[in-house]
Amino acid sequence: MASEKTLTIRLVRSATASVKHDQTATCRALGLRKIGDVVTQPDNESIRGMIFKVKHLVEVEEN
């Protein structure tokens, strides 16, 4: 189980200015608050769906 895949997600654009409320909420749910914040999340379908919703605001790296 130690070889479980993870995703490193970085917020590169503002999630508060001129984006829909649900996209702001999605960034918050991922653990991203400010530009430059980086989180590590497990690679699963629900996280992938959240990333797809805010793909224009984040950069993703597979680990």
Description:
Helices cover about 30% and strands about 25% of the residues. The chain has about 60 residues and is α+β, with helices and mostly antiparallel strands. The protein has one domain: Ribosomal protein L30/L7 (Ribosomal Protein L30, Chain: A, 2-Layer Sandwich). Helix 1 packs across helix 2. The model has no long low-confidence stretch (mean pLDDT about 95).
Keywords:
30% helix; 2 helices; three-stranded antiparallel sheet; 25% strand; globular; Ribosomal Protein L30, Chain: A; 63 residues; alpha+beta
Topology:
Elements: E1 6-11, H1 21-30, E2 38-42, H2 45-53, E3 58-62
Antiparallel strand pairs: 1-2, 1-3
Helix pairs in contact: 1-2
Short overview:
The protein has 63 residues and is α+β, with helices and mostly antiparallel strands. It has two helices and three strands.
C-alpha-based Rg, rounded: 11 Å
Note the main sheet: 3 strands, antiparallel
**Architecture per CATH nomenclature, i.e. the level-2 architecture:** 2-Layer Sandwich
Number of helices: 2
Report mean pLDDT, rounded to a whole number: 94
| Spatial strand arrangement across the major sheet | 2-1-3
Shape: globular
How many domains? The number is: 1
User: In what range is the share of β-strand residues?
Assistant: 25-35%
Distance between the first and last residues' Cα? 14 Å
Contiguous runs where pLDDT drops below 50 for at least 5 residues:
none
The sequence of SSEs as H and E is EHEHE
Overall strand count: 3
What is the CATH topology classification name? Ribosomal Protein L30, Chain: A
Q: What share of the residues lie within helices?
A: 25-40%
By CATH, the superfamily comes out as Ribosomal protein L30/L7
Based on secondary structure, the structural category is: alpha+beta
CATH class: Alpha Beta
